[in-house]
């Protein structure tokens, strides 16, 4: 179906479609001009937890967002799509967050990570994994930009 047909058959005043993408919009990646890349990474969060759950929370709540924006009433017609094809960032985040917690405690106590070989090894691995995430995210952003899409990362990085 052509994008204009999708737009013509969608009523933005109705509740979002439960089998649709972000905001209940009926657009797939191909018809969307805006791509949101979820980044569920909270490895070094030192206060509380749950940032990595934000992607699902935003997605679930997005179906209740009013698409009638006063300044940009036609914005939804651009198409907004939540990227689903991301690496195992959440799983890696959970793994390395567990490794980061003892390091955070040591640092909060004013102690030196360098003096503990086990913590130093974890520290180095966490930094390596964060760099890998950054590079994978960059690749994903470039993938969409090369297709002419506007890209937003959530949470912003």
Describe the structure in brief:
The chain has 157 residues and is mainly α. Helices cover 41% and strands 8% of the residues. The chain has one domain.
Core attributes:
8% strand, 157 residues, elongated, mainly alpha, three-stranded parallel sheet
Proportion of residues in helical segments: 40-55%
Distance between the termini: 34 Å
Helix and strand succession? HEHEHHE
Q: What does the overall shape look like?
A: elongated
Strand order of the largest sheet: 2-1-3
Q: What is the SS-derived class?
A: mainly alpha
pLDDT averaged over residues: 89
| Spans where pLDDT lies below 50 across 5 or more residues | none
Taken as a percent bin, the fraction of beta residues is 5-15%
- What is the strand tally? 3
Largest beta-sheet details: 3 strands, parallel
Q: What is the number of helices? A: 4
Topology:
Elements: H1 3-8, E1 34-38, H2 54-62, E2 80-82, H3 89-108, H4 117-145, E3 150-154
Parallel strand pairs: 1-2, 1-3
Helix pairs in contact: 3-4
How does this model look, in words?
The protein is mainly alpha-helical. It has one domain. It has helices at 3-8, 54-62, 89-108, 117-145; strands at residues 34-38, 80-82, 150-154. Helix 2 links the parallel strand 1 (34-38) and strand 2 (80-82). Helix 3 (89-108) crosses helix 4 (117-145). The longest helix is centred in the C-terminal third of the chain and has 29 residues, at 117-145. The mean pLDDT is 89.
């Amino acid at each position: 179906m052509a994008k204009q047909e999708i737009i013509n058959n969608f009523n933005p005043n109705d509740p979002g479609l439960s089998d649709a993408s972000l905001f209940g919009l009926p657009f797939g990646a191909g018809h969307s001009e805006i791509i949101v890349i979820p980044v569920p990474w909270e490895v070094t969060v030192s206060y509380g937890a749950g940032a990595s759950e934000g992607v699902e929370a935003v997605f679930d709540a997005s179906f209740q967002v009013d698409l009638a924006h006063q300044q940009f009433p036609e914005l939804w017609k651009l198409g907004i799509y939540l990227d689903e094809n991301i690496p195992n960032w959440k799983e890696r985040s959970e793994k390395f967050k567990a490794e980061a917690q003892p390091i955070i405690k040591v640092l909060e106590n004013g102690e030196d990570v360098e003096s503990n070989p086990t913590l130093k090894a974890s520290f180095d691995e966490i930094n390596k994994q964060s760099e890998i995430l950054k590079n994978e995210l960059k690749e994903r952003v470039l993938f969409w930009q090369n297709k002419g899409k506007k890209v937003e990362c959530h949470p912003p990085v």
